Task: structure prediction
Amino acid sequence: MPTEKNAAKDVIKGQSLWSDAWLRLKKNHMAVISMAVLALIFLLCFILPAIGNFNAPEDPAIRAAEHWFKNPNYQNLNNTFAPPSGHHWLGTDQSGRDLFSRLLYGGQISLLVGLVATTISVIVGVAYGAIAGYSSERTDSLMMRIVDILYGLPFLVLVILFSLLISEHMKELSEFLINDWKWESVFVNKYANLIPLFIAIGALGWLTMARVARAQVMNIKKQDFVEAAVSLGLKKSTILTRHILPNMIGPMIVYTTLTVPSFILTEATLSYLGVGVQSPNSSWGILLQEGSRYMETNARLLIVPSIVFSLTLFALNFLGDGLRDALDPKASKD
Amino acid sequence: MRLAFILSPALLMPFLSSCDKESPIDKYTEKKILIVGNSNEPAGLDPQIVTGVIESNIITSLFEGLCVQHPSDSGGSMPGAAARWDANEDFTEWTFHLQKNGKWSDGMPVTTADFLFAYERILSPDFAAKYSSMLYYIKNGEKFNKGELKDFSEVGVKAIDDHTLKIFLRAPIPFLPHLTKHYTWYPVPKHTVLAHGTMTERNTYWTAPESMVSNGPFKLETWKFNDRIEVIRNPHYWDADTVKLNAIRYLPIGNKYTEARMFFNDQMHVTERLAPEMIGYCRERYPEEFRQEVYLGCDFIRFNMTLEKFKDVRVRKALSLAIDRQLIIDKVTKGGEEPAQGIVSPMGEYKTAGIAKHNAEQASQLIAEAGYSDSNKLKFTLLTTDRDGAKTYAEAFQDMWQKILPVEVSIEQREWKSYQDMMSKLGYEMTTGGWIGDYPDPTTFLDMWKKGDGNNRTGWHSEEYEKLLGKAELATDPAERIRLLRQAETLFLNEHPIVPIYWHTSVYLLHDSVKNWHPLPLRNQPYKFIDLKK
Amino acid sequence: MLRIIISRLTQGILVIFCLLAITFVLIRLMPGDPFTGEKSHAAHIIEKNRENFSLDKPIPIQFGVYLTKLTQGDMGDSPTREQKVSTIIKHSFPASLILGICSMIVAICIGIPAGVIAALKKNSLIDYGTMVIAMIGISIPSFVIGPLLASYVAMNVPLLKVAGWGDPFDWILPSITLGAMTGAYIARITRGGMLEVINQDYIRTAKAKGVSQFNLIFKHAIRGGIIPAVAYVGPAFAMLLTGSFVVETIFQIPGMGQHFVTATKDRDYFLLQGVVLLFGTLIVLANLAADIALVLLNPRLREA
Result:
């Protein structure tokens, strides 16, 4: 009799949907490996430089010591294209800068661009697309035509205009932050240049996200369980949030993990065109672009960033797959 | 569908194995078709509208000026549309005797009427030619162009008869033959232009392949936008017997790496340039084809002279002395350029005063005298463009300055038009820049620093400087003239409105089948003498 | 169905009009103009040039002039080239179209089979292997893949040239470079779509009923599985036609993609207007085609 009572208690407790998903995720070996790889990369890119001196060293003695992870922009024109050594773990680039530290600092920017722009585009895009997909034909048409117009605008023009307009305001904001709130000027300047870029890239990305979200919603809303909910008299917003959105999570996550690397690529292409990440920041995209110029002469400058870049993207992808499998409420339990 | 995709390489196999031993370029060499890399799609082919080197390369094969560049002697001029010429004692009046059998590509004769028409066209205020200033040397040319003079007959060009042209200049210009080699001085076919519109009408498209008529060794055959421009022999050219080539094909290849690869892949005869990263590689791998020649141009850094922080000449001089020009040339630009001690490129008899040098101690001393130190740093922005290598170039300066002097430099990169715009509006603090000479005379580098000249873009001017230039223009003795110009340049350099960095070289690849191609500082090899032989 | 098409086309024209208007204003907001250049020119000359192209008039009037010319079939003259905009576009469109079609073929041939196989063999080595290969297209930028292919493949294979657009063999490498990226997306999306569908009840029912594996996939699952991919293909094709700048410069292709960049950089207002017009039209048509395909594939949508 006591065992039966305990047995009943255990059964009632049960398990939430999320811990269920977490268990499934852990069983996916590729996803686990990917998470580990991503964690490592994040650690290297964000924590390692912070342990060292975050700002460019002011002390000439430190500068002269060529301590690699303290200053990624330290040039030495007498030591260009140096092969890997104990001092420079991955060698130096065309201006004598340490490649390893450029990779780390570049990674910060690339990952940041990917994450921030993706967040913007997911929030805006899914909301917009879901509303459009679930609304009446006329509202839907109007909303999607607006998307078409925005899509057709020349991207480069928008990026240039954004950068110019916003950098004016960013200058004021930076000065305010430096002088009035006493933030570190190097820190502020470094990120001030990036804001226009985040906005510009996110502003293009949400369009496709909206389209995909809308297609998903339109597909789901025809299914029986939705019709059932409608006939029950539930409010539109409830149906959207409680029934439709959860069913979209799978494809949306997959698409999001596709978006992060695509934004990193967009940033690389913009840098190739000269309107992306500006000096003194560098990014993986810039490293790839510069490296591709040395393809015949100093392949190391291309191969190393390519490997790191691809590794990160593969990891993001397999993680996304794993998440999709784990979160799918209809996934078979084998 | 998938099956077909997998099979297709297999279908290609027989073709791959039975390929010719002859490379594509050899076929063109046999047919005497010169394949030239020409950087970008030209803005046009009307000699009186365009302003760039890209267009010039094509126009010089289509049209011919009064004089033609000597194939190997950079200072030599050969007969072109004019068979001979002479000048009066003080070089203010020139008489050109046109070729009696000079003809346009449609058979019509080339006469003085065509020249007068062309000069009136380029100087007409209504036509708004961007490069009309090249003809300001002609008496009253400037006045007419600015609308101060309404009657073209008062401008210093006269037709004595159908084949005798007299030009009156505003001052002694001994180098007029050189000027006539520039496309702004070329004739245009009066009958063709007028058949498509009035003299000053724009967008008449008379330069389209179907209607284009020209007087040079070649005529226009094909113009495919962003694909190629092809010119073929002009049978009516007065000197057609001298012309060896049958055709020239210009490829607008903007990406320098693509261009280099096309050369390696035996697809072209001449590249326009080489990317700095490829220079060492090509020097080693293609020593026969590698060319590095002096090019008439200077790269420098401008100061915005209207800013308070740059008013102290010691600051400017310090920034100039802090630059190790040789290191930049060796490690960044890599083209074997020469460190520029002045602004005027070395040419002929002229030797610039050596003022811009590298001296780190003196630089630190001067900037300290000006009141700057580690606790009071000089902060400024260096503007640069997004072109290949511009960033690395700017970063090298930033680094040099920050290592030697108490300064904080931030780099501002702008895309090309924004960059030009900021420079013109003096919306920068310091900026990279340069100038390519138009003709082999020091004035091409010195005239631009006059007050109000659109190419100045520094806000600097000096009355003394302009007085010297004015005196030089009126000087009749060539030695005196050179002396005065040098004096002007020295004055200019001592005030340091710019920091000269290097004098250009032209680095490119030339296939060994190209004959009669000699190094020329303006890179204006006359195509009529070029030959192709395996 | 016809009603929907007509209404979408009308909306399309409105979209294009708004697009033209907004672009018109935006590009004139950028600093510099077509005549800002390396060599500066006298003020009166710049003035006259601007007059020639109506740039001195207020923007609404300029737009009116532009529209009137447009209705007569004249897209204007390029201020930076001695060419009519329509000539430029006419010459560059064929190359872009061919490149776009070939790249799409490459993308579909890579993407859909890869996605289906990976979904069927989920979580096996075949799944991971296929996806790794498919992912190469979006893990390495085209400005790296292109030169790699050009330098190492074209230089060593006799019939392939490193650049140029002369004979059909020249179409191969650029299409692979451009198609690889789209192919990767299609593979991922197809895999995701197929997995969704395979786990649905109606597939389980069909399987229980004894439908063969082959029929199961190609008759039942695929129709639902490729829906996300189809939604992607329409706009993806339009993007291929116009986003090929990098591939065009690396392989020296006289296409339209580069105009988006060079016209912006040169401030060639009329050329940019022209390509935006073309791009807008393509987008409208592509979306319409994709939507029609979606309805055909999913009968439930027809009840709308």
Observations:
- Chain A has 13 helices and no strands.
- The interface with chain B takes residues 63, 73, 75, 77-78, 80, 94-96, 160, 164, 189, 273-275, 278-280, 293-294, 296-297 of chain A (CB under 8 Å).
- Residues 92 and 99 of chain A are 5 Å apart (CA to CA).
- The first helix of chain A runs from residue 2 to 13.
